[in-house]
């Protein structure tokens, strides 16, 4: 397992309220227990530039932002975290675990926002050194469960409403239909069950 995980690029993704951050933490701890040097980063964010872009994207006062602008900003933040962290880390054999990646832009802007998944992938291929990770695990959750888990002030993306977020979920599931490296886990279960399901896919690498 140690040899298989070294230098691998893994992504956990899914709709808001899917429990991704908890699962990133649990998976990262499990990988470290396999004696593998693992790092995890959030997208958008992590770098100074990326965190500033994140603030612009999530600020509820930026109401009129277009899906095309969102695509470019998410991609820019991603290019920076690749340059500063992911690229160098993979080269030294670390296992990189990302909290979101291009799959999010496909589901949110590409599908829910109507920008187009193919167009997102074209822009991604032109602006990133690597579009697809070794595996993307989508934590699938229904809208009602997700909303129940998000009892707090919502950011600009989370405020987009139920119709948009239903399409985000649909977008992630479509992506899994088309790409064999995108796996879906039922994230409505308890934390430990979801973690075990995530591990099943990781162990298949
Ligand atoms: P987070 O809260 O999971 O860190 O993600 C920030 C928000 O940005 C979340 O609502 C999902 C959204 N998002 C997109 O709309 N497109 C993207 O490409 C990414 C990475 C996130």
Can you offer a commentary on this structure?
It is globular and about 45 Å long. The mean pLDDT is 97. The chain has helices spanning 2-5, 20-33, 48-58, 67-91, 102-112, 117-127, 143-149, 162-178, 191-203; strands at 9-13, 38-42, 95-99, 135-140, 182-186. It contains nine helices and five strands, in the order H-E-H-E-H-H-E-H-H-E-H-H-E-H. The chain has one domain (2-204): P-loop containing nucleotide triphosphate hydrolases (Rossmann fold), CATH 3.40.50.300. With 205 residues, the chain is α/β, with parallel strands linked by helices. Strands 2-3-1-4-5 form a five-stranded parallel sheet, sandwiched between helices. The site of thymidine-5'-phosphate has 12 residues, from helix 5. Thymidine-5'-phosphate binds next to helix 5.
